[in-house]
Amino acid sequence: MLFSLKVKGYKALMSALKILGKIIPIPKPTLFTGPGSSLELCAAIAQMGPQKILLVTDTVLVKIGLLDNIKKTLDQKGIEYIIYDGIKPDPTYEQVEEGCRLLHENNCEAILAVGGGSPIDAAKVISAIAKNKKSIKKLAGWFKIRTACLPLYVIPTTAGTGSEVTFAAVVSDPVTHKKTPLIDPKIVPIMAALDGTLMTGIPSTITAETGMDALTHAIEAYISVNASTETDRYALAATRLIMENLPKVVANGQDLEARQNMAMASCYAGMAFTKASLGYVHAISHNFGAYYHTPHGRGNAIALPYILDYSKDAVIDRLAQLATASGLQKNNLTNQQLAQKLIDHIRSLLQKFNIPEQLEELKKEDISAIAKAALKEAHLNYPVPKYMDQAACEKLLYKMIA
Ligand SMILES: NC(=O)c1ccc[n+]([C@@H]2O[C@H](COP(=O)([O-])OP(=O)(O)OC[C@H]3O[C@@H](n4cnc5c(N)ncnc54)[C@H](O)[C@@H]3O)[C@@H](O)[C@H]2O)c1
Ligand SMILES: [Fe+2]
């Protein structure tokens, strides 16, 4: 009884967010796409006029030489850059603060992020702090950013988070284990390049896990109560591309055409979820990340089939449409059969990609706290199609113990 009353409140909050989403326009970055587009973006930055920029990235990418051509182009265009490669997966407050210090000390006029979701999210927060002069805690939450951020350009190197087009950034508080989201249209980058050539060297595990993140964005956006005709178009296009190209890039990372398709798919999925939002899979995965440093995509991949099993009866038709977009409609299957086929297909993909069905690190004694934190995140932010209470969430999490 008490829970059904609470659900009424959550639904009202999600309706309010939907209305707010219609009133507040979400900007779209200018996109450069195709092999070599990262260098076109560098040329475009030169035309925008900054003399000096902060290049936010991570050490792995510097070490493997992924930035070499980008640096060469910036040199040719006469743009001075300060490299900050201190971002690690699931960036922390300290890493962001160090970036702010470098930006300030060197009087950088813009930021270029090159990397996966971690450097991009960190760069988004640095660009917000640079102009708003407030701490991360003060900027965290919905619509807390008052002043336009420092110009931000991004080159994603995973496909992936879709962070290049979303109005969210996630940073971690290392003391409380909490992942802090900043959600505001002002943090959307002004330009982004989707360049598959930067992705051909991604190891297959990271390829599979980041690809499952993109698939989760598309599916959670499609079954969201706040989905619209526009977000549906992006979510279905992303699903189609991911189902066709993810197995190809996991099997052969050098397949440039499939890599480029995955870069596009990840971006489309980002377009879908930035408006339609996410669901329980992300709420659980964020907490796996906070407790055990589980890579974001792996956490999503593990939780996804369990949440779809749970939500299925509320979204049979939507799952059937996703199954059809995935090429699974054969012999006139009913929507019920198609929905199940999609979930089975996701499980078979996990097997193919060597992603376990359970989370090795998940401990019984953490389940109650993880469920509580995940439900709080989901119920205050995500328009899920079927609500669950603490007991139901704990029951699902128990199934995820290895
Ligand atoms: N802002 C959003 O909308 C949004 C959405 C989903 C996830 N996220 C956040 O994004 C982060 C995860 O990002 P991610 O999954 O892209 O991974 P990541 O940025 O954390 O990178 C994971 C690993 O992949 C390596 N890597 C990246 N690109 C590579 C390449 N081209 N070749 C070889 N190695 C490469 C990195 O060096 C790193 O070791 C999490 O913090 C998550 O919370 C943000
Ligand atoms: Fe994600």
Write a compact overview of the structure shown.
This protein is of the alpha/beta class and 402 residues long. The chain is 56% helix and 10% strand. The strands form 2 sheets. A 6-stranded parallel beta sheet has the order 1-9-6-4-2-3, with helices on both faces.
Structure description:
Helix 12 (296-311) packs antiparallel against helix 14 (335-352) and helix 13 crosses helix 14. The chain has 402 residues and is an alpha/beta fold. It is globular. A hairpin with a 6-residue loop joins strand 7 (168-172) and strand 8. It has helices at 2-23, 37-48, 59-63, 68-76, 93-105, 117-132, 136-139, 204-223, 229-251, 256-276, 280-292, 296-311, 316-325, 335-352, 367-381, 390-399; strands at 30-33, 52-56, 80-84, 110-115, 141-142, 152-156, 168-172, 179-183, 191-194. The protein binds nicotinamide-adenine-dinucleotide and fe (ii) ion. Fe (ii) ion binds next to helix 8 and helix 12. Fe (ii) ion (FE2) is lined by residues 161, 213, 217, 282, 296, 300.
